[in-house]
Amino acid sequence: MTKYLLLISIGLLAACGKKHTLPSDYVLQKENAKQRLVKFIQVERDSLQTYTTSVAAYGKYFSGVTYFKNTQDTALRVLFTTHTGLKLLDLKLSQEGCNTVYAVEQLQNPVVLKLLCHDFGLISAIKDDVQASQVFTNADGSVIVVQKGEKDLYYYATSSNSMVKVIETVAGKRKIQTEAYRESTDSSLVVKHRNFNFKLTLKKQTLD
Amino acid sequence: MKTIKILLILVCILCCIVSLKAQTMEKFTLVGNPQEAKQIFDQIRLASNTIDADFVQEKKIDILENVIISKGKFLFKQKNSLRLEYTSPSYYLVVMAAGKMLIKDGDKKTKIDGKGSKMFSQIQNVMAGLLGGQMTDNKDFKYELYKGETHYKIKLFPQTGAIKDLLKEVEFITNKTTLKALSMTMFERSGDVTVMKFKNVKMNTPIDDKVFATH
B23 pLDDT exceeds 60? Predict the structure, then answer.
């Protein structure tokens, strides 16, 4: 339910352009402040987290296991393998960006790799806190507005279990819309894109 | 009493280490004669009308400095029926039979008709080659067969398709006397290694065809 409220909120916000008109229960909390985005996957230094994973991309479907390991204070290693153990993808995420260490031939598509980097970076909030121009909150969560130079406005609608990200160009055209949320039924973490036929689903494993 | 218990545990551990060491230290010689290789593959085929085994899969990932353990059940029936069922840490099922394939991944079921799939036919070729005695005629894989004092070692080198892109080599170890499969090791081109160790292996015991249903 929260996910849909946040979706509606950000829809209204983005539709209203720079007026930032939100439902009346949203209150402006901060301006020009550093703001932390929701961190769906938090990996302690040297610990390993394991997720059953599926990637549906442009009619192709990959399933397997993703391993997240915080190899340094500022870097996260993301390894996606098949269930039988074959490595499909190896990413290194850091504050400087995303580096593809290895990708199996079927995943060597620049758009797919960019989306995987974006999505894993988004859910693990590997980058620094964002510099928010405005932060609005209500009982369901926050809407964070980030001005990136003259061209782009980023909107993040966040709660503890969901986040919607919208990038709007100066002409008011939405470039990307990403939703990351936990399924209430089985606590799977889902990342979906409005503009791309791309869906990433992760479910935490409990190792023996 | 406590000291004896500890001593017994230590002796057991030592025995295991010595046994494992003996297996890894075993000297293997290449079987260069195609006729002899064919005879050995025929022996394996006759001993493997069905295989029923548990497995423990260990994936060594250097950069993660961890060994990832998965467990499950392996079933095989001549000719070309395979069921690989992962039960831990998550459920995942692959069934291949009669040219079709079923993948069950959580709630998602995927059915594949193998007729148009190169990867599918390659996996079937490996099964037919290794367990069906047709290794010497296989175009998708080059093989090397080695014999040691107590084991056979079969090395497969993929020659075509997606498997060649992923895997550098696959190595099988079987017991020379019982012909029971002991392990399968996959060496990836990326440098990672996955070992599947077979336990409670039962050969030529009846397996119901229902377990290989792909619908």
Answer: no
